[in-house]
Design goal:
alpha/beta, single chain
C-alpha cells in the first residue's frame, strides 16, 4: 500500500502538472536564438502526451548553459499524434537541419517516440543517445482504463509498445531515468539492456524540475561523451 507521505507527494505531482500546463498556455515565448547557441552535441526535446516542450524547459536551460544547442519541435503542439507519426515529424526535423550526434531528451511518451526513431526512422544514424525520463517503455497498466485514445495507446498490449519493447538493439544507447514511485506507470520504466537510473523521488511530472534529475541527465550525457 502507498504510504501517506507518498500519497501526499502524488497529489503535489498532479498539482505541479496542472500549474505547469496553465503557465505554458500563457508563456508562449520560444527562445530559439539563445537555445541554438552552443558548441556541444545538439539536444532535441521530446515531450510527453498533452505536453508542450515547456515541460522539459528546466532541463533544457541547464543543458543550454552547459553549451548544448537545444532544438524544439513546436510543430508537435501538445503531442497528440501517434508515437509513429510523432517520430516521423521529429526525424524530418533532424534530416532537414542535418543534425548529427544528436542527444534526445524525452519525457514519458517522448521516450517511446525517441526509441521509435532509433529503431525505425533514423536511417542515417543521426542519433547518438536517448535520455528518457519516466517513459512507459513497457506500457502502463492504467492506460487500458483511459477515457481517450491518445492515452489508451500506452497499454502494454498496444502493438507499437510491444514492437518497441521487443527490439533490444537500441537499448544500449538509452538511459532510462525514473522515479522511485511513478503514479502513472505502476510497473516502472526499467528497460532491459539500457542504463537504468532510479531517482529517490515520487511523481511523474514534478521530478522534471528536480536537482536529482538535472544531475542524472548531465551524468547520462557525460558518460557517453
Amino acid at each position: 500500500m502507498i504510504s501517506p507521505g507518498d500519497l501526499a507527494a502524488v497529489v503535489v505531482d498532479r498539482l505541479y502538472q496542472m500549474t505547469e500546463q496553465t503557465r505554458h498556455a500563457v508563456r508562449r515565448v520560444v527562445p530559439h536564438d539563445r537555445y541554438l547557441q552552443g558548441r556541444r552535441a545538439p539536444v532535441l526535446l521530446l515531450p510527453g502526451v498533452y505536453e508542450t516542450w515547456q515541460f522539459l524547459r528546466p532541463v533544457a536551460e541547464r543543458l543550454n548553459a552547459r553549451g548544448h544547442p537545444i532544438h524544439l519541435l513546436t510543430q508537435l503542439g501538445y503531442n497528440r499524434l501517434t508515437v509513429s507519426a510523432s517520430a516521423v515529424v521529429a526525424q524530418r526535423y533532424l534530416d532537414e537541419h542535418d543534425l548529427t550526434g544528436v542527444i534526445l531528451v524525452a519525457h514519458s511518451k517522448g521516450g517511446l517516440i525517441g526509441k521509435h526513431m532509433m529503431v525505425t526512422d533514423d536511417t542515417d544514424g543521426r542519433i547518438a543517445q536517448l535520455v528518457a525520463v519516466n517513459s512507459p517503455f513497457g506500457g502502463s497498466s492504467l492506460a487500458r482504463y483511459a477515457p481517450v485514445k491518445a492515452l489508451r495507446a500506452f497499454s502494454p498490449a498496444n502493438q507499437t509498445v510491444l514492437t518497441l519493447a521487443a527490439n533490444l538493439a537500441a537499448n544500449s544507447r538509452i538511459t532510462s531515468i525514473y522515479s522511485r514511485l511513478d503514479p502513472l506507470i505502476p510497473g516502472g520504466s526499467r528497460l532491459e539492456g539500457a542504463t537504468n537510473v532510479e531517482l529517490p523521488v515520487v511523481g511523474h511530472f514534478k521530478p522534471l524540475g528536480s536537482s536529482e534529475l538535472f544531475v542524472a541527465v548531465e551524468n547520462a550525457i557525460d558518460l557517453r561523451r
